[in-house]
Amino acid sequence: MGLISFIIILLLWQWAAQGYTSVILPSAIEVGIALQTLIWEGRVISAVGSTAFHALTGLGLAVLAGGLYGCTSKERKNK
């Protein structure tokens, strides 16, 4: 069942990518080729590290902004 689900997701991804440019939604084939290139060139670890850094930085900023907003809006309600 897992392999069938994976294949269905890849087919849906490929179908959805036809309506957009590869900048917005690259196809599964394009992503597979890029991943293969990164692996062959030995750059996959640095690429994953860079992506994780950017994602965690964005999450941290969102948590900080949400926390500050929550603190200030709570103080206004209590007054």
Structural class: mainly alpha
Q: Report the average pLDDT across residues.
A: 92
Number of helices: 3
The count of DSSP E runs of length 2 or more, i.e. the number of strands, is: 0
N-to-C SSE series?
HHH
Q: Calculate Rg over CA atoms.
A: 20 Å
Describe the structure.
The structure is a single chain. This protein has 79 residues and is mainly α. The protein has one domain (8-17, 26-78). Helix content is 82%, strand content 0%. The chain has three helices and no strands. The protein has helices at residues 2-17, 28-41, 44-78. It is elongated and about 50 Å long. The model has no long low-confidence stretch (mean pLDDT 92).
List keywords for this structure.
82% helix, 79 residues
What is the structure about, briefly put?
Helices cover 82% and strands 0% of the residues.
Walk me through the topology.
Blueprint: H1 2-17, H2 28-41, H3 44-78
